[in-house]
């Protein structure tokens, strides 16, 4: 099956994990930013994680360099447009880009300016290609509660103008949900949709808490519901959608191999799964390759793919008109 020609939807893609290595060098030259090298091979190696990472934390180190060059309005707008372009070229028709805006305020930009710059990049992509984009704002679990409130407040004015949801991301510890209850509660009151990174690194109970305590409608990864019966049942019975990223999960050691990834077992048991890249550059992946891997490992059929595509439409944090249009592609 030629997946390249099929329409695609990407619900879990980090902006700073999807920056072209060439762009890092070009922005560094243009803005006089000090980076370790201007050799493309060296930069590519520094921002791409090996398949054999030791852990999620080792994987996350690959984000440091891209963030260094994502500190101006121009650079943020550019890398966002280029992500839209890369997606459009493999027939992604809809994408929800996520990032943590506070990471891009080191040179004086406000959180609002950061969000606005990324939204402009999304709009640039929409104007040039047949693709629609929305934005998910991420609160880093390693940051203070006050920072989470700051992101929620700053993004409020952009709700209905491209910003659609709130997320908690970064390193995963047990019981993180309680700490972030108040900012997520406020976000929901403002009208944000909720997706939470949980169950990525061996703690299935976090998924249960994300759904029942924080009101998560979708879960980023959720691999470890396989080891927590209660979380598994809640996800299945409530129709919680899992944003699954097979290549990333192998790299971070969430699973030992592609063949042991639970995505297909979940799908066959009626859990709503979606196929995503997580980080196109850091994982050296795109949706087409992810689908090729799943087809090879689990004999993913066209009917399987179509059902997952329709699951993705249903789960997307977008308007009914966009959803109806997305259905016409398949």
From TrEMBL:
CDD domains for this protein: ADA
Residue intervals of the Adenosine deaminase domain: 7-327
Example GO molecular function: hydrolase activity
Binding site for substrate: 14, 16
Known cofactor(s): Zn(2+)
Keywords in alphabetical order: Hydrolase, Metal-binding, Nucleotide metabolism, Zinc
Cofactor note: Binds 1 zinc ion per subunit.
Origin: domain of life: Bacteria
Catalytic residues identified in the record: 200
Binding-site residues for Zn(2+), renumbered to this chain: 12, 14, 197, 278
Residue(s) at site: Important for catalytic activity: 221
NCBIfam families: aden_deam
Role this protein plays: Catalyzes the hydrolytic deamination of adenosine and 2-deoxyadenosine.
Protein name: Adenosine deaminase
């Amino acid at each position: 099956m030629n997946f390249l020609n099929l329409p695609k939807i990407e619900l879990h893609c980090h902006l700073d994990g999807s920056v072209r290595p060439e762009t890092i060098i070009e922005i560094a030259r243009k803005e006089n930013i000090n980076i370790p090298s201007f050799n493309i091979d060296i930069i590519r190696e520094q921002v791409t994680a090996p398949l054999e990472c030791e852990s999620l934390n080792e994987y996350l180190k690959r984000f440091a360099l891209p963030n260094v060059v994502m500190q101006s309005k121009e650079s943020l707008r550019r890398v966002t447009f280029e992500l839209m372009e890369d997606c459009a070229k493999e027939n992604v028709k809809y994408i929800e880009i996520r990032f943590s805006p506070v990471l891009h305020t080191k040179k004086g930009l406000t959180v609002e300016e950061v969000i606005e710059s990324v939204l402009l990049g999304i709009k640039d992509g929409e104007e040039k290609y047949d693709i629609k984009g929305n934005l998910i704002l991420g609160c880093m679990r390693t940051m203070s509660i006050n920072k989470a409130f700051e992101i929620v407040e700053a993004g409020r004015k952009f709700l209905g103008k491209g910003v659609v949801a709130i997320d908690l991301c970064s390193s995963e510890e047990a019981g993180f949900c309680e700490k972030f209850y108040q900012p997520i509660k406020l976000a929901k009151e403002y009208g944000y949709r909720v997706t939470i990174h949980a169950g990525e690194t061996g703690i299935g109970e976090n998924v249960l808490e994300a759904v029942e305590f924080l009101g998560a409608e979708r879960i980023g990864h959720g691999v470890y519901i396989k080891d927590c019966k209660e979380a598994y049942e809640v996800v299945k019975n409530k129709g919680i959608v899992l944003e699954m990223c097979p290549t990333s999960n192998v790299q971070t050691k969430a699973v030992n191999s592609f063949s042991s990834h639970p995505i297909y077992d979940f799908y066959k048991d009626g859990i709503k799964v979606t196929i995503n890249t997580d980080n196109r550059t850091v994982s050296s992946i795109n949706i087409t390759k992810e689908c090729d891997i799943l087809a090879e490992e689990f004999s993913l059929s066209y009917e399987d793919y179509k059902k997952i595509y329709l699951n993705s439409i249903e789960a997307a944090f977008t308007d009914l008109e966009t959803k109806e249009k997305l259905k016409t592609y398949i």
